Amino acid sequence: MRKTPSSQPLISSPDNELVRRLRRLASRREPGFAFLEGPRVVAEAAAAGVDLELLAVREGDDFAAEAKHRVTLTRGLFRDVTQTVTPQGVVAIARVTPSTAGEAIAAARRARWPLVVLDRVQDPANVGAICRSAAAAGAAALVVLEGTADPFGAKSVRASAGNVFRLVVSEAGWDDLALLDGYGAAATGGTPLAKAAIENAGMIVLGSEAHGLSRSDLRTVTIPVNDGVESLNVAAAAAVILFEIRRRKAA
Ligand SMILES: C[S@@+](CC[C@H](N)C(=O)[O-])C[C@H]1O[C@@H](n2cnc3c(N)ncnc32)[C@H](O)[C@@H]1O
Description:
The protein is of the alpha/beta class.
């Protein structure tokens, strides 16, 4: 291990323990940790108050953020641990504090915002995009039901542009949500969005890409779409509903 000009250790060996850990986390989550990729994601997570366990910068690049450990990786090694090409080479391992369903429900209540519930949304790009829209609209908390992609997985975190860290996020089952009254978003047959009191709902549930909602006893809300179009992408539907809630709260 050499030292870089900024006296950060320069790692060139693929067998280095930190490199192995980064590579492992990039493809598989470890409880309590998340892999962050790219300057925007790392900066957003740091701005949200997340503790960075390790910050790894590509040789020749620099990045200002507080981290417990900082290393520089040779360009070849950096390419090896990252999944995407970013203009500024930086990846990090963040500490993730899991919340309980009760904490997520309490956070949503405090913010006077419906709890956002993901019911088997399987594509991490959709989960990340929904987290990003939820944080942007002003939602405080999000719950993922079994069968939903991990919101702290590397792909979801990237798709959320780091905004998942602005939400209280919990795994839960339907039983945990039994006291919440709310709306399920349904591609067809629900109360038209303009007539549904979604801003006062305890929760807004978004369904799976392939099968929709897993419960049939929820009140449902539908965003009217043009004839011939079957449904919206779940992240697009979430954005429309969440920003309608924001609009009504500001009115
Ligand atoms: C691609 S759609 C699922 C379509 C699926 N064929 C079904 O049976 O519902 C995925 C999710 O996006 C949301 N969604 C899609 N279009 C919507 C619309 N027009 N209004 C409200 N929610 C919608 C719903 O939550 C839905 O479960």
